[in-house]
Amino acid sequence: EAKRQGKGRYETFRPELAELARERLDLENDLRNALAQQELFLLYQPIYDISGVRTTGFEALMRWRHPVRGIVSPLEFIPIAENSGLILEIGAWALVEACHEACHWPDEQRISVNLSPAQFRRQALVDEVTRALAITGITPSRLELEITESILLDASQHNIDILHQLKQLGVRIVLDDFGTGYSSLHYLRSFPFDRLKIDQSFIREMCDSREALAIVRAVTGMGKSLEMEVTAEGVERPEQMALLQQEGCSHLQGFLLGRPGPAADIVCGPTNALESTSSRVPN
Ligand code: C2E
Ligand code: MG
Ligand code: MG
Ligand code: MG
After folding, report:
1. Which residue numbers delimit the EAL domain (predicted)?
2. What is the rounded CA–CA span in Å between residue 143 and residue 139?
């Protein structure tokens, strides 16, 4: 905040900032017990093939049922988990939990799990994935690990080595939120990703902005030439879906097709999402 105000200005005491800091500390303390108290859980959002008829897998999205605050968004608690180091324990739990759940699904359905940059800072990540595969018995190629460009930004060679080791295990590596980082294109050269997820911001604007559409088109074309699947995330409107089909995108994810819901709701096989969205609970 002080930085954004520019040089030559200094921070004055702002009671609302102290309040925010205290609230964050409270949340951090509560988060320490959340795992043991079984307050963390995963919802699963379907990923569809381009026709929007068949699911090819589900993305695990974490939620925190706080005893006083109710459901807390990952956008709020994941950064706290990252700064406090708690993400290591929480991330390891999510990996096993998601693989375990996916074992109940028909074979071809994949499970995607998000990884934080902090999980890359130690070698244990490879051991944890190995362990999750072993104790759940899931076929490695059904597990997709979603990473963001920030993983490639810091300590790049170390992290790319880890990505290669993960790939050796037979799991798939996905580049999430593609297009939002500083040098997205550069990273495509550094690692053979299995899938790119075009960031929702481009999908949101593609029907109204020539620039956003051009970027979606370029990423889709690039994915094809590089033999990477391309998933559009944040598909909310039929017009967006139609345009993505026309552009040759390979997979669709978004509220139009299905919201994140509890594992118990998952009905696999050919289900037309556009006709049965009512069975899913709201986000
Ligand atoms: P993400 O991995 O990019 O996940 C996609 C987010 O977009 C999810 O938000 C999902 O609910 C939301 N979304 C999907 N379709 C639509 C749509 O059509 N419209 C709109 N407006 N939103 C849509 P969510 O669940 O709140 O998660 C936010 C972020 O939190 C995730 O972004 C991911 O970065 C992080 N996150 C969630 N679960 C985990 C986890 O288990 N571990 C880690 N490290 N991060 C997680
Ligand atoms: Mg993701
Ligand atoms: Mg994303
Ligand atoms: Mg995102």
Report:
1. 24-274
2. 7
